[in-house]
Structures are given as structure tokens and as C-alpha cells.
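R.M. (postdoc): so does anyone remember the format we settled on? I'll just put the C-alpha cells first.
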């Protein structure tokens, strides 16, 4: 069992930056594919960024060049650095851990981009 706790959300102006963190409990964090998803009101949850155990990353087209996902296996933590934020980035952001058929979700953290 893995528990995920996100932090770092909040209100930011357009063009601003935020860094989300997700700390995982338990051991063997390094084997998990870690991802950040988001869900806006009335929309389906969508993948934002993902990082494999080997450090390979992929991003949604809408965030390429603006968001960076990284992980620190010594701290059991995955990060999402978000820059040049836009109002359409407003959503609840969820951390996800996946290994084979096992999948875990955090409780989510709200990101609001507004002037």
C-alpha cells in the first residue's frame, strides 16, 4: 500500500509559477511510475506529466515547455514545477503512483490561476 500526499497548490496570477510536491509513504518508491494528473470542473481527469523509475518523462502537449516533472527517490517525493501558468491550468492536481496493476492516488491539491 502506498499513500500519497500532495502539497504546494494555491492561487497564482497568470504567468506565475508554482511547485507541487507529492510525498509517498512506504518503501520501494523508486520502482513506481509517478504521474501528475489534473481535473477541471466538468472535465475528465487528464494526464499532465509522468516520470518512470528510470527518469524518462512525458508531458501533455498543453504543458510542454512550461511544466517539469522530477523525482527524488531519497525523499520519496515527486515534483511538478509549473511556470508560465495560464487560467486554463486551473484544476485539482492529483499525484499518481503506478506499478504493473497497482495504482494509487493522492487526495489532490487545488491550483487556481487568476488575476
Amino acid at each position: 500500500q502506498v499513500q500519497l500526499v500532495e502539497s504546494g497548490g494555491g492561487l497564482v496570477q497568470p504567468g506565475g509559477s508554482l511547485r507541487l510536491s507529492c510525498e509517498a509513504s512506504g518503501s520501494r518508491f523508486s520502482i513506481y511510475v509517478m504521474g501528475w494528473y489534473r481535473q477541471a470542473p466538468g472535465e475528465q481527469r487528464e494526464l499532465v506529466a509522468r516520470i518512470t523509475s528510470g527518469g524518462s518523462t512525458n508531458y501533455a502537449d498543453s504543458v510542454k515547455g512550461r511544466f517539469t516533472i522530477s523525482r527524488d527517490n531519497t525523499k520519496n517525493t515527486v515534483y511538478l514545477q509549473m511556470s508560465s501558468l495560464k487560467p486554463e491550468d486551473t484544476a485539482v492536481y492529483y499525484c499518481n503512483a503506478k506499478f504493473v496493476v497497482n495504482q494509487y492516488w493522492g487526495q489532490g491539491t487545488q491550483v487556481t490561476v487568476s488575476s
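R.M.: ...and that's the designed sequence above, right after the C-alpha cells. Also worth knowing: The radius of gyration is 13 Å. The CA atoms of residues 5 and 78 lie 10 Å apart.
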